[in-house]
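Quick one:
INPUT:
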């Protein structure tokens, strides 16, 4: 069960979704088109995701990424399931488990370009200090390639010293996130052939009486994956770090085919500038949230101590003395 799983499997479960009527469990695997997939399935099962996440301030370019906001009470998400539903999802033989997976090279590049290259405040500020800073403005694709190599080199050093737990979950290895063996059948939903996988998944959902609607357009990062942006040094680090991912998911140990999109430096610099401005608001909101949580803990502690005091024997015994003191003052 979930309590017995290691930290990686626990994270995968926390970001999973279970649809009882469709007998469908979608496992969590960051940077494998999971957000798009969940948004589509939630909408097909009658959840107005856009409306329910309208007031979310989660920092991953709202509203599309707010499907992950823990403050939003979305049905079918793992934190909202009761114990019976979780047991059903994990132990029933008729449940189809969808495993979203992706080539390790493009997955790491997507995590870096979609979080760090564009300057998402939450992720940039959470990096260990030995990760190199990037230029304020990018003037050539070569700078992107150099930035990715520097990031992967620093990441390799941190992981070698402290393990994958020291880096963000978006670059945790897939074979560890998806280590749990499902009881029922599985569907490998490969990001590289997503259209075919979505058609298979849509047919399965329809066979259970749910119309998922049209298959979604996969959410794209600002800078697409291009094989020429991955240097030999960067590729070497990825091969060393993610060897078991290549083996388990039967990927060739090299660079996958490039995206058909071209690199737009203007778009990249525009997003980085907006994220820099948003970072000011983000830091203020996070500080406010931490302060609110601190004050909440202090109030709860004060109330608990007050309750203990009022129920204590000494308080009850000294009650008459307090009554006399009050009458005297009056």
């Amino acid at each position: 069960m979930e309590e017995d799983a290691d930290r990686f499997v626990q994270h995968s479960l926390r970001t999973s979704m279970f649809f009882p009527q469709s007998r469908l469990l979608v496992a969590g695997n960051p940077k494998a088109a999971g957000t798009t997939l969940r948004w589509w399935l939630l909408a097909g099962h009658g959840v107005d995701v856009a409306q329910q996440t309208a007031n979310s301030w989660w920092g991953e370019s709202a509203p599309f990424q707010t499907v992950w906001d823990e403050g939003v009470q979305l049905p079918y998400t793992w934190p909202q399931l009761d114990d019976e539903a979780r047991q059903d999802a994990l132990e029933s033989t008729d449940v189809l488990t969808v495993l979203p997976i992706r080539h390790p090279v493009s997955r790491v590049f997507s995590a870096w370009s979609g979080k760090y290259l564009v300057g998402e405040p939450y992720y940039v500020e959470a990096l260990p200090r030995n990760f190199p800073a990037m230029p304020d403005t990018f003037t050539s694709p070569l700078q992107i390639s150099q930035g990715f190599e520097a990031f992967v080199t620093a990441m390799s050093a941190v992981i070698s010293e402290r393990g994958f737990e020291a880096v963000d979950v978006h670059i945790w290895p897939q074979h560890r996130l998806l280590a749990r063996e499902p009881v029922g059948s599985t569907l490998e939903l490969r990001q590289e052939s997503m259209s075919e996988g979505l058609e298979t998944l849509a047919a399965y959902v329809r066979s259970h009486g749910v119309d998922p609607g049209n298959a979604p357009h996969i959410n794209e990062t600002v800078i697409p994956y291009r094989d020429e942006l991955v240097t030999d040094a960067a590729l070497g680090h990825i091969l060393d770090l993610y060897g078991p991912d290549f083996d388990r998911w039967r990927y060739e140990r090299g660079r996958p085919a490039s995206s058909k999109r071209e690199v737009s430096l203007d778009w990249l610099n525009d997003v980085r500038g907006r994220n820099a401005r948003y970072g000011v608001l983000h830091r203020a909101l996070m500080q406010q949230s931490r302060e609110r949580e601190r004050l909440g803990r202090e109030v709860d502690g004060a109330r608990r101590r007050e309750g203990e005091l009022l129920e204590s024997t000494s308080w009850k015994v000294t009650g008459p003395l307090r009554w006399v003191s009050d009458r005297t003052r009056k």
